[in-house]
Specification:
This protein has 299 residues and is an all-alpha fold. It has 13 helices and no strands. It starts with a helix and ends in a 6-residue tail after the last helix.
Length: 299
């Protein structure tokens, strides 16, 4: 008997009819809502060709949308790299046996998870401006990257910690039994598996980072949302500009979602699915190779 048959009963004829009715009803409601929205747009003249024609010209794309897209991707890419490094270090720190390392890392993670991203952007923007930490032309980018790095780094730290805790306890005991120190066990055995297991969740967090770059609009960062406002002021078509920018975000997030699915499938094909243990002979080989190389000192 499969797990699914134990947890869930197969729907009967009445339940199937109910599901079909709910599905049809949902589609009807969605169509009605879409029709209502389009009707309101048409009343306000937002569906006229003049409002949408600018997006068929090269000027709007070369001067607004493409620079805005580059700004969005630049902030997201820098934030992703820094958040992964920052979060991995914090996650390892929270797993440390030394209380003087574990507790400060825990406080940092909980603090930055609790503070809104926009508040951190505004604070760092004012901080950098007052103390002239970065050049004025990079001020908004630095504030956006800092806010995204601090918040998402804290989230990545929790992902790393939960990934390590999800592994079988016997792996740590087996590693110590063959002479590995706590630091070597973490670096060679536990952390690689935890990161592999949490890769889909980590890639999913990239979607959050990409979307949150739009908060840079508040501090005048030249990203997609800011460019949409500029297009609206220039061509008097703010709603169409927002719709186009929203469609660009949907496409980007869809591609990231597909990347997450590809990464998850890749890890499964390699036999390293979420929480999958390393065989004892693999642990032995890793330990022997490490001892022979002598490259990683114990901590």
């Amino acid at each position: 008997m499969s797990n699914s048959s134990v947890l869930f009963d197969a729907p009967g004829p009445r339940a199937k009819r109910l599901y079909a009715a709910v599905g049809v009803g949902s589609i009807v409601v969605l169509v009605l809502v879409l029709w209502f929205v389009l009707a309101k747009f048409n009343e306000k003249g937002q569906l006229t060709a003049a409002k949408w024609k600018p997006f068929l010209t090269g000027e709007i794309w070369t001067q607004y949308l493409i620079p805005g897209l580059i700004g969005t991707l630049t902030a997201a890419a820098i934030s992703v790299v820094l958040a992964l490094v920052f979060g991995t270090l914090l996650g390892i720190g929270r797993l440390s046996l030394a209380a003087w390392i574990r507790w400060p890392c825990s406080v940092i993670v909980e603090f930055f998870r609790s503070v809104p991203v926009l508040l951190m952007m505004l604070f760092t923007y004012a901080l950098y401006a007052n103390y002239e930490v970065v050049p004025p032309d990079r001020l908004a980018l630095a504030a956006v990257v800092t806010g995204l790095t601090l918040y998402n780094g804290a989230v990545v730290a929790e992902l790393v910690r939960s990934g390590v805790y999800s592994l079988p306890k016997g792996q740590e005991e087996a590693a110590k039994a063959i002479g590995l120190t706590s630091g070597q066990t973490m670096r060679l055995i536990l952390l690689p598996q935890a990161i592999t297991a949490m890769l889909p969740a980590i890639v999913g967090q990239l979607v959050v980072i990409l979307k949150d770059t739009a908060l840079g609009y508040i501090i005048t960062y030249e990203e997609l949302l800011r460019k949409a406002e500029q297009i609206g002021n220039y061509k008097s078509n703010l709603l169409p500009a927002l719709i186009v920018v929203g469609a660009i975000f949907v496409i980007l997030n869809y591609l990231l979602g597909r990347l997450a699915q590809w990464v998850e499938g890749l890890t499964r094909r390699r036999g390293r699915s979420a929480g999958g243990p390393i065989a004892p002979d693999q642990i032995d080989q890793t330990a022997v190779a490490t001892a022979a190389a002598g490259a990683i000192p114990p901590i």
